[in-house]
Amino acid sequence: MEAPTLRKAGSKQEEAFGVQPRRVADLGTVPSLRRSNSSLHKVRRSQNLFGNSEKQENLSSWIPDNIKKKECMYFVESSKLSDAGKVVCECGYTRQQHLEEATRPHAWQGKDWDPKKHVQEMPTDAFGDIVFTGLGQKVGKYVRLSQDTPPSVIYHLMTQYWGLDVPNLLISVTGGAKDFNMKPRLKSVFRRGLVKVAQTPGRAWIITGGSHTGVMKQVGEAVRDFTLSSSHNEGEVVTVGVATWGTVHNREDLIHPSGGFPAEYVMDEEGQGHLTCLDSNHSHFILVDDGTHGRYGVEIPLRTRLEKFISEQTKERGGVAIKIPIVCVVLEGGPGTLHTIYNAITNGTPCVVVEGSGRVADVIAQVAGLPISEITISRIQQKLSVFFQEVFETLTESRIAEWTKKVGRQAGYTAWKQGASGHQDILVRTGHASRSHDHFGHENWDHQLKLAVAWNRVDIARSEIFTDERQWKPSELHPVMTAALISNKPEFVKLFLENGVRLKEFQASEGAGRGAGAAGRTGDRPRLLLPVPNIKLNVQGVSLRSLYKRSPGHVAFTMDPVRDLLIWAIIQNRRELAEIIWAQSQDCIAAALACSKILKELSKEEEDTDSLEEMLALADEYEHRAIGVFTECHRKDEDRAQKLLTRVSEAWGKTTCLQLALEAKDMKFVSHGGVQAFLTKVWWGQLCVDNGLWRVIACMLAFPLLYTGLISFRERRLQAGPGLPRVRAFFNAPVVIFHLNILSYFAFLCLFAYVLMVDFQPTPSCCEYLIYFWLFSLLFYDPDEFGLMKMALLYFSDFWNKLDIGAILLFIAGLTCRLIPALLYPGRIILSLDFIMFCLRLMHIFTISKTLGPKIIIVKRMMKDVFFFLFLLAVWVVSFGVAKQAILIHNESRVDWIFRGVVYQSYLTIFGQMPAYIDGVNFSLDQCSPNGTDPYKPKCPESDAGPSPPEPPVSPARGVQAPSVRPPAPTESKLEKNEEAALLSWEIYLKESYLQNQQYQQKQRPEQKIQDIGNKVSTMVDLLEMESLKRSGSMEQRLASLEEQVAQTSRALHWVMKALRDGGFGSEEGIPAPAPQKASEGQDLEPDGRQEEEDVGDTHHVNARHLLYPNSHVTRFPVPNEKVPWETAFLIYDPPFYTDDRKDRGLVDPVGKNPMGRTGLRGRGSLGCFGPNHTLQPVITRWRRNQDGAICRKSIKKMLEVLVVKHSLSEHWALPGGSREPGEILPRKLKQVLRREFWSSFQNLLTQGTEVSVPGPGRSAGHAWGGASSGGSQDLRLPLQHLHACDPGMSVRWQVVDRRIPLYANHKTILQKVATLYGAFY
Q1: Beta-strand pair 519-522/525-528
Q2: What is the DSSP string of 338-368?
Q3: How much is the average pLDDT of 1179-1191?
Q4: Distance between alpha carbon 134 and the CA centroid of its chain, in Å?
Q5: Rounded-to-5 percentages of helix, strand, coil across the chain
Q6: Burial of 331 (0-12, 13-18, 19+ CB in 10 A)
Q7: Which tens digits make up the pLDDT trace of 995-1039?
Q8: pLDDT band at 78, cuts 50/70/90?
Q9: Hey, which of 239, 619, 709, 736 would disulfide with 282, CB 3.0 to 4.6 Å?
Q10: Tens of pLDDT along 788-819?
Q11: Would you say 440 and 421 are in contact if contact means Cβ atoms under 8 Å apart?
Q12: What is the per-residue DSSP string for 527-549?
């Protein structure tokens, strides 16, 4: 029954577990291309309202099949009673709390209670939503599950059914389970730092014990304080509590077999007894059940497995896949906490210890950073006496030695001090641990950079990654650059640009073909995808979509990568990214105007008002940027600035800046003084702009005046040249053409009026034929190079052109009627009405006037509002007219008189003209028709009053639309490539000047100054606190150093006095005894008074003293560092005996003891034989060379590369060596990666190499140890294709020699010695 469900769950887990998704989500192709935050919140709210019931049904059906609880099936009376004095079972539950079958006579009757046999799994009965009564409406999630539940099922529940996003960081908080006090400042710093880490983009998960005590309570209060002070947009902190079901107080409230939606939970701290309440500030609870009651620690194994499983998953964000890092944060705590964090450190999990929180955390923090030789039993004993005063007397010597061993493993500890930045410590420590654990070489830095991008911590990237220690190539930053763009992280984009990434090279390396959408992947390479709206850019009809070449189903990147990224950022509503990319663009004025146009067009499709206003504000901002850059250019050189206006931009559809400004209706840019000066120059053509208008009109009427010098020209050749070029230049000027058109149009109207009023004959006259010719000549308009269809669309886009077409069509209709003798009079009426439409065209002509133009535009805009007022007026007029007509006139059947009575007369009533038959003063019956038979008289009203006076004639009125003149199309200039490149370079230079001025003005604003001062004050406070801590630490170090020097001086004097006494000078009674050193010195003295020197090989013996022996359940006896040498007395040393295939504990070792010292284990362990077990580790190296063949150097020293191998089951790389049988030269592992024809040559190389001996690995025991010898071959130029792996799970590679390589400890020692031997970098 469960297999199909689990298979389905497994398929759903693929994305959450980091498996490559089978399809790419098209995030960018939404209907409106952009979606605002507010609209997204509305959509999510609606989805939550309609989707909660469906989610509850899915959860109720999935959980019983996959999540189990545990129940005791056999009641065995315990000798202990419950807190209430009741008889309980061995499981801790009373008889009433057992199932009925558990209390019946059973086959197990008389047997001891065994949890493996007597506790069985069954479908869980506690899951759903949890609400803490009296604490608001915050809803959490909870589930009761068996301790044997696979972590993959729990992870699937959290990500799929609870809706949690895959985390980018896992924070496991451990420490004291009982309440403890923290200093107020430390508590504040800890809470801020923890929550800030949890709020990294992509979210982190905080995992605790979930109860309302101890460290769990501190974490909950931190989350509560953040929730109360944060805004809704900052989201919820995911806090997962993993607690034991049997220790939860009031857990009966959570039992709902079909799911609690919600289950109300009551926190009763006073009545909880030895149980604990759940913490109300956690968002999710995993309640681990083993079938018992009141037993703590049940959840620890499952929590460990769950954390390990989550840390092994891969999260893909922004095209970059990273393993989910994990960090352990320690507050306070006791022996159990120390064991937990020691295991975490052993498994490679970094630990951040909060100094000042008490007990274990303070013990570790006090010794963190000290040399290993100074972490002695006496020092740990002194620390325990301070921080564990209550239980110090009960600690045995072996327990203190174990503490010394565990605390001395400080490679993974980081002390979080009060003056430090907590979140910085956590993230930096996690990044370093992740970097050194799974990666090395340039992969170290690449992985840590991916983590910084995933966490959006550019400060960590600047301080920890982009340092002198690592030089980045621009090509190495391209994947993370893509991730930063897709995940909208502008600070990282700016950082990568500062470190050499160029957008053109970046996009070129990404490839030319890209599809429509938002983000996707091709193989392992992330890519940017571009949704392209159809937005017109210029009057020729070039649209934004036409800039791209069509491919099946998609559009492809072409020509200008910076432009494409800018369009992508604008469409995706990524404002800061767009600003950065625009600053990198070459054609910046055209780019800013194009962005303004795109934003204004997109705002028309936006439904949300706030987003619409944001788009328009951003469009104005880009218009101001275009104005700012053009102002800088115009200030420097007016002629070159005007060339920028008319330069044809190939990137933006072969359009000009001026055309883009007109299409975007950027009137502020068009009204700029430099643009207006250019337009004035274009308007006057070859004429000087200081010519008076009366001179132009005079020369238009009498062109021979041009020969008199009345008109001046800009070019001297025209001013002093022959007459014909001057006449041609004069009449080609736009200002002259415009006024000629005005005169021509006035002449047309005068002639039209003359024909209508004076010369309208049955047969058309000559003047009328002239009107026909004049009018129909307008139909033959030259479409230039635009094309007929584009020109038609452009022509009909203007209102006044539509009015012209209407007037012409009406003229054709009137002409048709006029040519038919029977319709001569209707034709004249139509032509007369058409004359009104031609007269209205004058408004469009006079919009160019400085005096009349603004007033005409005002009237045009006013008329739009008047139409709404007329609608309201029509409602009142018609309603009044219908009532008046129905009351006064009985059964009027003539439609025209009904219209006059209902509409016309009611409209005149508004102006005080009351109809005579209503007023009744001057009414006469002769003015109306009693029966309504006279077509020229209205029907008489039902009244005895006299006849009404005649009604005034109807005078129709017509609304007028205001015009707007389309200015002549600006000229375009096609520049030479060299000239265009120089012009664009000049524009870029002035753009940088403009941006610098903008930054300076931004800094000079009062708000910015206040913010800067606040930041400086905060920084100064932090520096002062750090300085205070440094001074105190420095003082302690100086005092310790002084104390050590005094002790050394005392020992030296004692030695001198002893030597003098031995030489016969003085007597033994006169020698003063040296003062004993205090325990606080933390240093043990040998019997002869000498301080124990640090074992030089101690660092090589660490792996051989791990508490847990590899691949077994044997625990070593803890051996502190100072007790490793056999010469040092260690009276309590009692190591266990372990030999993997022998059980004889009394076997006497015929060889001897481990020469490196104590290991905490007797026997030979898993090694092959007693005594030394020799291995050969060949160090095959070559010089690292660049493409030119030159040897690479770092810090002046040459760089080596070494051949390393890695097995699929191992997490570490290693040298290609291993155990060697007697008589063999090549180890078996090296033969697996070498072709057989190279075996003999490698044997010769190894015999010529230098041999180095180092101690063996962590499998060493007290009577068997490993010894590694290495032989080297130098500068071996062997390509990887000459290497092969017989085992498909074996990987081979050349790796740069570096101290950060995560090799086995003895292998790193070998490499260090080899690097020293050759004088290479390490």
Answers
A1: antiparallel
A2: HHHHHHHHHTT--EEEETTS-HHHHHHHHHT
A3: 81
A4: 37
A5: 50, 15, 35
A6: buried
A7: 878 877 877 788 887 888 888 887 787 777 767 666 666 676 677
A8: confident
A9: 239
A10: 565 666 666 777 788 888 888 899 899 899 88
A11: no
A12: EE-------B-STT--BSGGGS-
Element (H, E) at 214: helix 214-229
1154 φ/ψ angles, rounded to the nearest 5 degrees? -60, 120
State the sign of the Cα–Cα–Cα–Cα dihedral 1030, 1034, 1040, 1043.
negative
Q: In sequence order, what are the residues at sequence separation of 6 or more whose Cβ sits closer than 8 angstroms to the Cβ of residue 374?
A: 367, 1082, 1083
pLDDT computed for residue 476 by the predictor: 83
Which of the four pLDDT bands, split at 50, 70 and 90, describes residue 306? Answer: very high
The DSSP secondary-structure symbol of 821 reads G
CA distances 76 to 70, 94, 110, Å, are 16, 10, 9
- Give the pair of three-digit tokens for residue 1151: 């060889």
Per-residue pLDDT band at 623 (split at 50, 70, 90): very high
The alpha carbon dihedral of 533, 534, 538, 542 has a sign of positive
pLDDT exceeds cutoff 90 at 443: no
- pTM surpassing 0.70? no
What SS3 state is found at 987?
A: helix
Residue 622 tokens, joined: 């880009």
Residues in contact with 506: Cβ distance below 8 Å, sequence separation at least 6, in sequence order: 474, 478, 481, 482, 561
Give the separation between CA 217 and CA 225, rounded to whole angstroms: 12
CA angle (506, 448, 1020) in 5-degree steps: 100
- Give every CB contact of residue 1075 below 8 A, 6+ residues apart in sequence: 1050
The mean pLDDT value for 1179-1197 works out to: 81
Phi, psi of 924 (to 5 degrees): -130, 140
Could you report the per-residue pLDDT of 94-108, keeping only the tens digit for each?
A: 888 888 777 776 656
Q: How far is CA 284 from CA 142, 520, 556, 1249, in A?
A: 6, 32, 45, 61
Answer whether the bond into residue 262 is a cis peptide, omega within 30°. Answer: yes
Which pLDDT score, from 0 to 100, does residue 1061 have?
A: 77
pLDDT tens column, 934-949: 877 888 887 554 444 4
C-alpha closest to that of 504 among 577, 558, 568, 571: 558
35 has pLDDT over 80: no
Cβ atoms of 1216 and 1239 within 8 Å: the answer is no
Residue 328: left if φ>0, alpha if ψ -120 to 50, beta else—which one? beta
**In whole angstroms, what is the distance from residue 114 CA to residue 757 CA?**
120
Cα separation, 431 vs 1071, whole angstroms: 58
- Count of positions (residues) in the chain: 1322
Instruction: Collapse the DSSP code of 239 into the 3-class scheme (helix H, G, I; strand E, B; otherwise coil) and give the result.
Output: strand
Taking alpha carbons only, the member of 1266, 1272, 1245 closest to residue 1179 is 1272
Beta bridge partners of residue 1175, listed in sequence order? 1219, 1268
